Predict the 3D structure of the following.
Amino acid sequence: MRFPRLAPACDNRRALQAIAVRYRESEGRGAREMKNVLRSVAIALFAAMLSACVATPGVSPSNERNWEEVHSRVSAVRWLSASRFAISNIRDWTWGADGPTRKNWHTRQFDVSETQAIWYFVEPLSFAKSMAHTFATFEIGRGERRQFLTVSVEARREVGETYSPIRGLSNAYELIFAWSTEKDILIDTVMRLDHPIQAYRVNVTPEQAAIILRGFLERTNELSRKPEFYNTLEHNCTSELAEVVNSKFDTPIPPHSSFVLTGNAARYLHSLGFIGNPATPFAEIEKAADGREAVKKNARLPERQFSVAFRRSLGYR
């Protein structure tokens, strides 16, 4: 089932008019820009691919390999009613400086109709400003009943493997939608890996957020039944997020270079009106989104309290 074009939830009429102009321009420009980026990236990596990417004819994607423990379980969704669902293998690990100190996996129930918001996270990578890992959290329920469910699209690694964007071009990894508690992934990112993190509330309505969550749940089940390969250019952490959204609406996010140069994705979403106030320069929004200190400040809190306090530390309710 598809829905009308996704429009950002914004009350600033003048800003929305500016968004509409940029949006129409981006629709025509986006496909051309994507082709140019893909061409330049392919040329730049071609020599490395010749030496690093050994052809593997006949190899098919599989869920049955000797996986790194963090990727050892695939989530599956079971619908209990038209809106209520149970999702298995939610990772809820406790992280120390040297790795996990406790490894819990949960099956939990949620009601998709209670989805209130989507939060978009960017983990900039140190080796290239234009590269980042991105993931999303769904805020479900209100008040003390609020829950936070995070999905991170990743290259699924086998024991002993490390991630390489070049190897990611040659069917070296399977694709995984890794579901976790928000505290799990934020503590790991900031406290163990010492990486920066940026948190953005997405400008969509609760109804739109619920539709998008349903899309992610459906895609999760697809991969649990029929695994697919990760691809650095076409099926990565950012392009898969956009693909799921686009499957539910009439092209809300036009193709863009940030689907590959993922560190630019938040800026692109801001230009479309989906992040922050369109009238505010993105540099200001990006600075306010820095979540490192908020993670550290609230790291000792229990899971749900952590997510609520994290947002309050960033100035959200």
